[in-house]
Write a structure and sequence with these properties.
The strands form 2 sheets. Strands 3-2-1-5 form a 4-stranded antiparallel beta sheet, with helices on one face. The chain starts with 12 loop residues before the first helix and ends in a 10-residue tail after the last strand. It has 1 helix and 8 strands, in the order H-E-E-E-E-E-E-E-E. It has one domain: minor pseudopilin epsh domain (minor pseudopilin epsh fold). The protein is elongated, with a radius of gyration of 25 Å. A hairpin with a 5-residue loop joins strand 7 and strand 8. With 197 residues, the chain is an alpha+beta fold.
Amino acid sequence: MPAMDRKNFGFSLIELLIAMVLVAILAAIAIPGYQALIKGSRITSMTNTLLSDIRLARSEAIKRQERSALCRSDNPTAVSPSCGGTANDWSDGWLVYVAGPTNLSNPLIYNAATDVLLKVGLPAELGITIKTDADADLALQFNGDGSSGEIDVAVYAICDDRDGDGDLDKAYGRQVNVSLVGRGSATDNVLSCDAPT
């Protein structure tokens, strides 16, 4: 019987090391891009959530022919949430509510006894901030016709520290504008991440 040729199948140690080096190089290139994609997605998601809640408050004001509002809150998930928190900072969350008939004198402060709580805006993900201008510092209200109760366009900037230098980066942020007629829109043109005007 003739002897059979034995051939070795598989990778040599050198081939395996070369493949591992190539995988490491590709991972080093892809991971930062993937992280930037995730951070951008979080900013977009937070922007869409805020814009959706603004539209909810406006539509409820029109539907009920009553004033509605969003107010910043530092305890939105509490059993008895309230308006409050740090000035111009909506990062901790917000409340969406319709002002009850006995709260029409001050609809910018949520009153659990008389107001109808529609929705709770949860705190922003770690690293994301939501800052607003002075016009919508504590709250944003809507009249029964859907118009904004503000004296100027309300501006919200949603930003993060993308480059890790300790400063918020407006180049990667999003901005929500609410016009005097109450319409909300989002844009990539962020004027300022700290105190948008």
